[in-house]
Amino acid sequence: MQLLNHLIVLDLEATCDTDGRLPTNEMEIIEIGAVMLDARCQIVSEFQQFVKPIKHPVLSDFCRSLTHIGQADVDAAALFPTVAKHLADWQASYTDTDSSIPWASWGAYDRRQIDQDCALHGIDSPLGEEHINIKKAYQRVFGGRRVSLGVALRQRGLRFQGQPHRGIDDARNIAHLIQQNPGLRPSASHKAI
């Protein structure tokens, strides 16, 4: 099995509220956290930026409590198109071709949210089409039902490091799970899931 040269492990945080007060189609990214893994599954770089939302610029109490992202963090942040360009430039620095690097996240939410924010702002995705759903891969490798990242880490005897529901910390922990479980490592011939 030939391993990928690089893999982006990404996690997003978005505007949110309790009891459906903020419909999912109005949620916007407020943090992009990502780590770049090399062919040996070592973290070689990190990307973290807050994003200023435009539809609901004031974070709910629930959102601030869940993510530990403050209003000042998003008020001082750039808009999504600028942060997306920074993410694309970061990714491009790890490839010598025009092809994009496959990316992974815990579940399909991150892919849907990236697509939603790109549509809102009328821009192309800063990420490639090849997305790997690590939650699905985990279920395929270890069986059972789909579980949260925290449960998966505990099932594998690992502890969550950092602050849950922070993009960069979630990305680091997903990467750690991949590092410690070779069955989750995508190969160059894998099919995106």
UniProtKB/TrEMBL annotation:
<dbReference type="InterPro" id="IPR047201">
    <property type="entry name" value="ERI-1_3'hExo-like"/>
</dbReference>
<dbReference type="GO" id="GO:0006259">
    <property type="term" value="P:DNA metabolic process"/>
</dbReference>
<dbReference type="InterPro" id="IPR013520">
    <property type="entry name" value="Ribonucl_H"/>
</dbReference>
<keyword id="KW-0378">Hydrolase</keyword>
<dbReference type="GO" id="GO:0003676">
    <property type="term" value="F:nucleic acid binding"/>
</dbReference>
<dbReference type="GO" id="GO:0000175">
    <property type="term" value="F:3'-5'-RNA exonuclease activity"/>
</dbReference>
<dbReference type="InterPro" id="IPR012337">
    <property type="entry name" value="RNaseH-like_sf"/>
</dbReference>
<feature type="domain" description="Exonuclease">
    <location>
        <begin position="6"/>
        <end position="187"/>
    </location>
</feature>
<protein>
    <submittedName>
        <fullName>Exonuclease</fullName>
    </submittedName>
</protein>
<keyword id="KW-0540">Nuclease</keyword>
<dbReference type="InterPro" id="IPR051274">
    <property type="entry name" value="3-5_Exoribonuclease"/>
</dbReference>
<dbReference type="Pfam" id="PF00929">
    <property type="entry name" value="RNase_T"/>
</dbReference>
<dbReference type="InterPro" id="IPR036397">
    <property type="entry name" value="RNaseH_sf"/>
</dbReference>
<keyword id="KW-0269">Exonuclease</keyword>
